[in-house]
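ARCHIVE CARD
CATEGORY: sequence design from structure
SOURCE FIELD: tokenized fold
FIELD CONTENT:
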């Protein structure tokens, strides 16, 4: 397993040396192979699209599915560029829009709300290259220790980020937020029914963590959505720092996360293929409902 991980990292290091437009073509080709051979993930993505866009004709969903895998392949191989390329090169490829400096001016703690679009990894680089505060986030450790160490080293190499595994007590993260570190929050994965509410996501009940609303309310945080768009060809990526939500959170955490899901839906509709459809977003079902994934 370590040999495979080392070969993967070596390949990523080599690929990032190529012109970016060529990396894009290779990544899209890799994604086409994933579409052919990653049967489980393809079935999950097909099911998600069928649930969320039942009103679309099947050929339209299939077109989005194929483009999704092309972009998924891109995003996986572009990790090498994000982890190993010089910062000057990355600054030329990451196009920032909006108020990237909000966190360093704010007198209140800031939560960046970053949905799981395929370019999400780029946001982690952008908040280090284009603003001055040290960001904190919570991550799921990889099962392969070598790959986990390489991933963490690549993500933290610019010195303005701290990553805490889920095993660390949340009070350590809260302490850093109270000390002025903006919190990089990825709110839209299914972590089970505990501390979640079933709220609509494209009309389907989805287990959605209440923690973003509760944390923002407890710490009096400013919540600023951040969305990453993968641009075509060799153009790079666009990272949109959107206007902070003026009336979020509220005392009603369930209503807050329902609104959050509605916001994520609105962003998905702009670029449907760029959302992380290979995740089992509807794995946890409300009591009495059957599983949606075979």
């Amino acid at each position: 397993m370590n040999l495979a991980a080392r070969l993967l990292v070596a390949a990523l290091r080599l690929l990032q040396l190529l012109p970016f437009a060529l990396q894009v073509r290779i990544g899209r080709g890799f994604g086409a192979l994933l579409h052919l051979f990653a049967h489980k993930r393809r079935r999950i993505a097909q099911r998600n699209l069928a649930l969320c866009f039942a009103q679309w004709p099947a050929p339209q969903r299939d077109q989005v599915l194929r483009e999704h895998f092309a972009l998924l392949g891109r995003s996986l191989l572009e990790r090498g560029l994000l982890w190993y390329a010089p910062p000057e090169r990355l600054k030329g490829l990451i196009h920032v829009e909006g108020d990237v400096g909000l966190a360093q001016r704010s007198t209140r703690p800031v939560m960046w709300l970053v949905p799981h679009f395929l370019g999400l990894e780029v946001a982690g680089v952008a908040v280090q290259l284009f603003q001055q505060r040290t960001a904190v986030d919570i991550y799921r450790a990889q099962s392969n220790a070598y790959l986990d160490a390489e991933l963490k080293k690549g993500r933290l190499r610019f010195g303005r980020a701290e990553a805490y595994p889920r095993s660390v007590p949340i009070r350590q993260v809260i302490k850093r937020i109270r000390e002025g570190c903006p919190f990089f929050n990825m709110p839209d994965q299914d972590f089970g029914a505990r501390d979640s509410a079933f709220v609509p996501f494209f009309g389907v009940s989805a287990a959605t963590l209440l923690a973003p609303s509760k944390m923002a309310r407890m710490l009096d945080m400013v919540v600023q959505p951040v969305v990453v768009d993968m641009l075509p060809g060799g153009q790079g990526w666009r990272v949109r720092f959107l206007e902070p939500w003026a009336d979020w959170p509220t005392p009603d955490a369930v209503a807050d996360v329902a609104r959050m899901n509605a916001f994520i839906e609105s962003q998905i509709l702009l670029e449907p293929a760029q959302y992380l459809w290979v995740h089992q977003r509807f794995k946890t079902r409300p009591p009495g409902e059957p599983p949606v994934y075979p």
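CARD ANNOTATION: The chain has one domain: 2-274. The mean pLDDT is 96.
SHELF: design records, drawer C
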